[in-house]
Amino acid sequence: MFAMQKQLFRDSSQRLLGGVCAGLGHYWGVSRALIRIAFLISIFFFGISIPLYIISWALIPKARSVNEKARMKGGFDTSKTVNKTNKSVRKNKKEGPLNFTWLSKLINALSVLVGGFIILFSIGLAFGSPLFLELFWEIKLNAINIYFNPIINLLERPEVIGFKGLVELLVVLLPGIILVLKGSGIKRKSYSNKLIGVWIVCLLISYCFL
To answer: What pTM was estimated for this model as a whole?
Structure first.
């Protein structure tokens, strides 16, 4: 037996709707419950997760065969011979529509880009950088303004940081760090999984108690 290359599929066996969150959980090595919570939260605060989920449902194939389910979970090949499995993989590549490795790479690249943008923008606003402040005021999207507004000039006013300021900074900054870690494939010691838990706790504290 040998390890199979992990590939993005929808997991219909653990689905609530289309199996998108379960499939992303397998691919990123994250609990599907955390993915679902992130989708649910983004519905109320950003609204982008609904069309994103529909597009993902349409583009990501469902794991049907035993080999597809094994590739989805990054398991081991249980076929009798290596040559038989290699032929099957080559056949899938030739068929084209069944192979969505390009989509996985695109998602990872977008995760790194979006995460890097969030990190740079957050740090720039927190330090009161004129360049980032000017960009912030030029942005017309209310969702983005509301998201970044709590940390403007935060680190230039140490007397108001305190616990509330620290929580607000983590709420804004952690998603960028998590996206970069996930998109770049850094999964050792489950750093990104732990950060997701910290972000959810900070989010709940910020919106429920502060």
So the answer is: 0.55
